[in-house]
Amino acid sequence: MPPFYITTPIYYVNDRPHIGHCYTTLLADVAARFQRLVRGSTPTGTPPAGTADLPSVFFLTGTDEHADKVVTSAAEHGVSPQQWADQNAAEFKRAFEFIGSSHDDFIRTTEPRHRDRVAVYLAALLASGDVYRGEYTGWYDEGQEEYVTENAAREAGFKSTISGKPLVKRTEPCYFFRLSKYQDELRGLIERDEFRVAPDSRKSEVLGRLRPPAVLNDVPISRPVTSDPATQWGIRIPGDPAHRVYVWIDALFNYLSTVDTPARRPLWPASVHLIGKDILWFHSVIWPALLLALSRSGRDWAWVALPRLVFGHGWWVSEGQKMSKSLGNFIDLERLRAYAARFGIDALRWYLVTQGPLSGADADFSHAKFVEVYNADLANGIGNCASRVGNMIEKYFGGVLPPIPSAPPPEAARLRDGALISAAIDSLARVELGEASAAGARLVRAVDEFISATSPFKLAKDLANLPAVGDILYTCAESLRIASLLLAPAMPTKMADLWQRWNCAPPPGVPLAELAKWGGPHALKPGTRIEKGDPLFMRADPAEPAPT
Ligand code: ME8
């Protein structure tokens, strides 16, 4: 199995982290935890020194620090750009610690390990001619730090589509990347799914912009350095310090620079670049074209293959409206912390992962929906089911797990057949992380239905039925153990809590298919103490006001 290397966008350090940043990093975390589970690899990896014990799952997130906005915000706060970047990168690290992210590395683009590699990549592209010096005139969106094509500028009334501020006409000497050369090749690669862009709606969107009559122009990739301090922040073009690398080009290379060491190189190519739909063009066109160019810039670069998949998720909106600075309606970290304080971090993770805008329409963060999902899936779902089973084992068997049934009740067939495990693994392959997690919740519901169908509490009224009751309860507990495996990537803390109570923590190094075999070598051991404990999730009152 090739290694699984997943990335998130690297976030601008001039913004404070909010739900959107936390969401993408959380999704990548759930994907990474699922993949570790599927492969039986260690929970998280501090990058090891030698290739031999390279983790088979590698999860990268980080910060994008060379934007011009960093210089302006730093000046407003009376600190240097580097200090400003340090402070805000630390905020992102704290935010990701709060959401329980298990990333293996956090890249900051101001780090020498990144800057030095970007200079090497550009030197190779200059030498091959795919980066060349010219002159650029165009419409510039100062807020977004990007040029807008003549057509797009005209359509938007020469105003930024994001901020509404007027676009500015700029002419400057400039280095270009020969993007035009790669248009047809990229179109073919995406059409044939050799370079996958998902979900399908995003693939169509990109292909629409690559198919004739669309024509790709070469793109400017540098900005001039002047006496203005704002222009001195960034990585210089090798051999021409009067120019610095455009922040987007610098940023995209993080995915490569982080693993471009002798020990980590086997991790390339990335398996998934998880991004928001706003930055699809950069990731599905500019980035693969840069990589194609680099891979052909000399024999030393032939290993630079294309990433396997770019996945662009949708948008969190707030009460139906796009979140923006001008509206001041961001679901910010404080709101998320308030939800975690009231409902637990795992409940927040569950809501974001299962109700978020992963592949379809935008999603609204709604308190009413949060409580509904919390009660249905968690308090009345896994929480209540685990309590019921634990209580019955306590009541009828003194808290000790009864024997494995010699002939499992016929109603248990659905619990034992492993179909939901296969469904979860299939969903995972399509990056449908909400679906993969929901397979665990479905298994819990199936256990509830099994309890209703077999009525152990009624049977137990007659002592002669105790063996049958034991068969039912063992079946329930073992099925919940399997469900807990599927729920663990989204809810690692609560499931670890359950494993501790039930003495069934999965041993490291065993792949999911083995762990999840019903009654297999890792099944619950009869005679194990099953501790009841407090409910994993207390029911929430929908009438209570939202936490703030
Ligand atoms: O674009 N809903 O950084 P950025 C869901 N530095 N996700 C959201 C969101 C929302 N409302 N708002 C933001 C940049 N995101 C560049 C990236 S990568 C080489 C450089 C998430 O700080 C989503 O993942 O603006 C989006 O793509 C990303 O934050 C943009 O973060």
Description:
The chain has 548 residues and is α/β, with parallel strands linked by helices. The protein has helices at residues 19-39, 68-76, 81-98, 112-128, 150-155, 183-191, 200-208, 247-252, 254-257, 280-295, 333-343, 345-355, 367-397, 413-416, 419-429, 433-454, 456-459, 466-487, 492-502, 512-515, and strands at residues 4-12, 57-64, 105-108, 131-141, 146-148, 168-177, 196-198, 219-220, 222-224, 236-237, 240-245, 272-276, 309-313, 316-318, 321-322, 363-365. α12 packs across α13 and α13 (367-397) runs antiparallel to α18 (466-487). Residues 9-12, 15, 20-21, 23-24, 64, 251-252, 275-276, 278-279, 315-316, 323 line the site of ligand ME8.
Distance between the termini: 45 Å
Radius of gyration from the alpha-carbon trace, in angstroms = 26 Å
Poorly predicted runs of 5 or more residues: 45-52
Q: Could you estimate the helical fraction of the residues in percent?
A: 40-55%
Number of strands: 16
What number is the mean pLDDT?
94
Number of helices: 20
| Helix/strand/pairing category | alpha/beta
List the strand order in the largest sheet: 3-2-1-12-13-7
Which distinct ligands sit in these coordinates?
ligand ME8
User: What is the makeup of the main sheet?
Assistant: 6 strands, parallel
User: What characteristic shape results from the CA principal axes?
Assistant: elongated
Instruction: Give the DSSP E fraction (strand runs of 2 or more residues).
Output: 5-15%
Oligomeric state, counting identical vs distinct chains: single chain
